[in-house]
Amino acid sequence: MHIAVAGNIGAGKTTLTTLLAKHYNWIPNYETVDNNPYLDDFYNDMQRWSFNLQIFFLNTRFKQIVEIRKSEKTIIQDRTIFEDAEIFAPNLHDMGLMSTRDFENYRALYNLMIALIQPPDLLIYLRASVPKLVSQIQQRGRAYEESIRLDYLKMLNERYELWISRYEGSKLLIINVDDTDFQNNPEDLSKIIDGINAQIHGLF
Prior knowledge:
Blueprint: E1 2-7, H1 13-24, E2 27-29, H2 39-44, H3 46-70, E3 75-78, H4 81-94, H5 100-114, E4 122-127, H6 130-140, H7 150-166, E5 171-176, H8 186-201
Parallel strand pairs: 1-3, 1-4, 2-3, 4-5
Helix pairs in contact: 3-4, 3-5, 4-5, 4-7
């Protein structure tokens, strides 16, 4: 089974992925951040490196999905291939940080990949306000994220909400991060696990 966790920068995807993997004995599949060769350059010069970064993410996540579907174990994935194409790339294009030529090339490649893969069996979406995102980004202290602008996070949030309102690829569980402290409060994590159990049992 393929479980995926989606959400904006700083929403808590990696933390929740780790907690759920431990609870269920699932295999965690994390987003490539620490060994991403484009992230530092991108945050310093978004226009120059936006296309390179998005192609790297697209390639990495397509490989992840191929491997997930080959596996006989349940795997929980930190961020989905859909978020790159439905949120991050079009946002960069609309901001003038990715050319129309590059964006159309990117979308053509994405559409080809999507035709060859299956969506996750369950999508968990972490909904968080911009202040909450900023607070959690500051807490983890990644140097390359210090220059992220508030308007950038706001635009991403708006795109996330639009995407999730139209999402029909699989079962969907929405978690309001502003009202939930699954990292430090066992009761909050337990409620999420109850919600996941209800969704999973409905898959069969």
